[in-house]
Amino acid sequence: DLFENHDEVRKVFQESVGQIVQIVRLTPKQTPQSFCTTKPESIVVANTHLFYHPMADHIRILQAYAVCHKLDEIRREGQYPDPVLICGDFNSGPLSGAVRLLTHRSVLPSDNDCWKNLNVYRWECGDSEYMIDHGYICNNSSPDELIEPSYVDEEFVDAHGDESSLDASVSSKSTKDESSNETINWNIPPVIELPSSFPTLASGCLRVPQFTNYAVDFVETLDYVFASKPSECEPYGFKPKGEAPMLTEDMVKNYVAMPNEVMPSDHVAVVCDFEWLKNQ
Known about the structure:
The structure is a single chain. This protein is an alpha+beta fold. Helix content is 22%, strand content 21%. The protein has seven helices and 13 strands. The chain has helices at residues 2-5, 7-16, 57-75, 97-104, 128-133, 163-171, 249-253, and strands at residues 21-26, 43-49, 84-89, 106-107, 174-176, 183-185, 192-193, 201-203, 213-215, 218-220, 223-228, 236-243, 272-278. The strands form five sheets. Strands 1-2-3-11-8 form a five-stranded mixed β-sheet, covered by helices on one side. Strand 9 (213-215) and strand 10 (218-220) form a beta hairpin. Helix 3 runs parallel beside helix 4 (97-104). 31% of the residues are buried.
């Protein structure tokens, strides 16, 4: 219904944005003691990179749903469904719609503010002129004038941000496109829900990293590792054990930002340990 009723979402998601996901089936090493007891015969691992634009959280929700739908199709090709690992650069903060979909299985019209740009964002918002005018790129401040980037502690919990303002926006009949000042029809956001056959996911990080991307004027957690939990319908799964030590803000600030001469990427590697888990 969203694609049928919203031309811009259809244009961006189906015609403009490339959807990339790498999926591979792996066979765990088995020992006589573990064979067919604590480990599945195979697992399916997916790696993806979601759309970048700061105003396109709703597009990333649809991308995350598409990844899970395809992953579920592949993992169910054998006699039994495979447990899954999903990782990548989601270009989404811990309270975003895409992360909420993966950790809570659904995104509702009133969840957080992930739909706030549904009727504002257009593909043309990615033009360099628009990005510069709205402060998304090309910070022209001198180093002495730059405000230190900051972060806040966030958890994978029910993220209802500013519900009062969101509810008010949902109840309105129309909104204006910031780039063209044209009034466009309001479309009520849909309910996005993962298929019932898809397993419940857990984050590989027991604590949400303070950041996985550190730029001069932008600090955020964008990269994740998720793994499926066992259940009555899913005999095999994973139990998160913890994550490798992450870079601290002080480490990065010694070199201003990332990348730099000792940190070759603008993203921090997220390394997690999991334990095989079988539902008894």
